[in-house]
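Good morning C.,

I know you're traveling, so I'll keep this short. The sequence:
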Amino acid sequence: MSEMITADLVDLDLSADTKEAAARALAERMVAKGRVTDLDGFLADVAAREAQMPTGLDGGIGIPHCRSAHVTEPTLAFGRSADGVDFGAPDGPADLIFLIAAPAGADDAHLTILSSLARQLMNAEFTTALRSAQDAETATALIRGDARTDTASSADTGGSAADAGSAADVGTQGDAGAEGTPENTAASPGAASAGAAAGSTPETAAAETAETAAATAATSTAAATATAATSAESEAPASPASPASPSAARPFRIVAVTSCPTGIAHTYMAAESLENAGRDAGVEVVVETQGSAGFTRLDPAVIAAADGVIFAHDVPVRDKDRFAGKPTVDVGVKAGINRPGALISEVQEKAERGEATGGTAPTLVERSGDTAEGYGTKLRKWLMSGVSYMVPFVAAGGLLIALGFAIGGYQINKAPSVMDHFVWTQTDSWAALLFQIGGVAFGFLIPVLAGYIAYGMADRPGLVPGFVGGAIALTINAGFLGALAAGLIAGGVVMAIQKARIPAALRGIMPVVVIPLISSAIVGFLMFVVIGKPIASAQKAMTDWLNGLTGSNAILLGALLGLMMCFDLGGPVNKVAYTFATAGIAVASPSDSAMKIMAAVMAAGMVPPLAMALATTVRGKLFNRTERENGKAAWVLGASFITEGAIPFAAADPLRVIPSSMVGGAITGGLSMAFGATLRAPHGGIFVVPLIGNPFLYLIAIAAGVCVTTALVVVLKSTRRQAPGGSADDAGGATAEKRQPIAA
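The C-alpha cells, ready to paste straight into the viewer:
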C-alpha cells in the first residue's frame, strides 16, 4: 500500500461540489505524480465506470474507481470534504472520497491490496480515524497501515489506531493468495483482528477473536466443523424447554458470493459487510469474492454444510450451479453493502419455510475444471466452455447467412462487398448485407472456440494465446481440429507459466506483458511449425471423407448423429454432434454433404421434446401434473430445436425416456440423410423450413422419429409395475415430483 498513496495524493480540504469535480481534483494530483498520463482520458474512464453504478456508500463514503490505459501504476488518492459530495449513496453525500486508479490489466497482487482497503472501509474505527486526522501525513499513514498510526489517540477513536493499521495489514495478507488471488477469508485472521480492534474492551476483543478463530476452524474441514460445533454446544447453557436439534447444536451457516463490474471495491466491501453482520447475528458467513484478481472457489464441503446462500452481485456468478437446492437470496452488490443484516434474516426465513432454489440447467459458459475432479471431467468442461461460447456465433452467423441465401438466392455469396455497392431499394443488396454480416460472425468461430477452451483452463490469462492459436488455425486451414488443439495447448502453456517462480520485480507485468508474450509465442510456434500442417491434413481428409459419403454410409452416419443428439439431451455428447455439423457449414459455400449432416442433426435434436409433448397429450395419465405442464412447453421447445426441453422427463424417468429418444433420433437422422434433406442454417427448427432442401420429406423424417419415441415411452411406462394401492400415475408422479427440481 505504501507505493500506492503518498501525502501528495491526500487532500484534507477538498473543495469540490460535484463528483466530477472531486474526481478531477484528486486525479490532478495523480497527474502531478506521474501516475496518470492523460487527465481527460482517465476521467472519461472514471465517468464510464460511474455510469454503470453509483459508487457512493452508506456512511459518507465515495469510492470512484476504474481500470484505465492512462494509469501507469496502481494509485490511490484520498480527499476529505467538509460539505460532502453526492456519489449516489442512499444516506446522502460522502465526506471521505477515495479515487482508485488501476492500469488496464492491472497486477493482481496490487488489486488484491486495493480490495483489502475496501474491506477496511467497513470498519467504523478506520473511518473515524480518517475523519479526525489533522494532516495529510497522518491520513496517509492510516490508509497505509504504517506503524506510526499509533500517533492517533485511542481516546479520540474509541480504540488504538495502531490496531486499525495492524488489522489492515493482516487483512491484506489474508486476502492475497500465493499468486495474488483473493482467498475466501470469511473467518480469516485478518477479519478476527479487525473484529477485535473494533471492540470496546480487551475482553470483548479477545472474545471476538476467539469466536472468529473458531469460525475459521469450522469452515476448514468437516472434522473441524464437527469439533467447533461440539465445543460451541458444550459452552452454551442447556435449555430444558428446547429439545436438542441441529439448529441448537450449531449456528446458522451461510455461504455468499460477491462480485461487481470491475471487481475492485464493491466486491470486497460487500464481503466484509456480510461477514461483520454475520458475526453480529451469531451466524457463520463464508464469502467467495469473485473480483478482478480472480477467485478461489469455496470448498464443496463448506457449501454442502451451508443452510443458505446469498448472491450479492452485478455480474454473473461463476459456477452458480454449485449452490443449487439451498435457500437463496439473490440481490445486487450494493444491497450486500448497505443491508447485510436484512439479507441474512431473509435467507434464514426462507430456510425456516423450506424454500430451496431448484437446480438449474448448468450454465456451461461458467464451468471450468475443479481441482477435485478427474482429468477426463476437466477436459470435458474445458471443451464445453469453448463450445458454449461459440454456439451464439454459430446461431447468429448461420441464420444471417441462411437469410441472405433465402432472399438473394444461392449466388449471393458472389456479390461484391456492400461497402462498394449497396442500393437501398434493391433486395439483392440487403441479401448481400445479411450474408456478409453472417460471414463475419462465422469468422469468429474457430478463434472463439480456441480462446474459450483456454479460458476454461487458465481463466483470463488464457484468452490471448487461445485466440492467437485459433486465428492461426483459421489461417492454415486447420479448422475445428486446429481450434481444439490450439485451445488446449494455450491453456496448458499458461497454466505452466503460472506455476513458475517469478521474481518480485516481474510480478507487476506478468498478466499484461509476460504471460501473453511467452504463451502466444509458444502457441504460435507450435501451430505454425510443428503441429499445424498435420492437423490441417487431418481436417482436409475428414472433409473429403464426408463429401464422399453416399448410400448406406450416409444413412449410418445420420443414425449415429441422431443417437448422439438424443443421448444426453443438450449435454456434451449432444454438443459434439452439433459442433461436428456446424463445422461443415461454417464456410461461405458449404458442401452438399455438410448441409445434409446439418439437417440430420437438427431433425434428430427436435425429436425428444416433441415426442414428450405428444406422449403427455395422448396418454396424460402416465405423467404427473408437472410433467403434463412441461409437455405443453415442450411443443414450442421442440419445434425451436431446443433439445433440452426433454430434460425434465429424462430426469424423472431416464431408463425409459433416454433409450426411447435415442431410437427415435437415430431413425430421424437416418431418414433425413436417406431423403437427401439439406440445411444451410445451424438453428431455427421449423422456422427455417423454407431454407431446407426437400422440406416435405424432412418433416416426414421428424414425424417418424417423434412417433416411434412416443410409442416406446408410452409402452415402457404402461408396462412398469404399479405401486400397491396406487396408479402408475401416482407411482411415476412421486418420482418425478422429487426429481423435477433438479432438472428444472
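Safe travels,
E.
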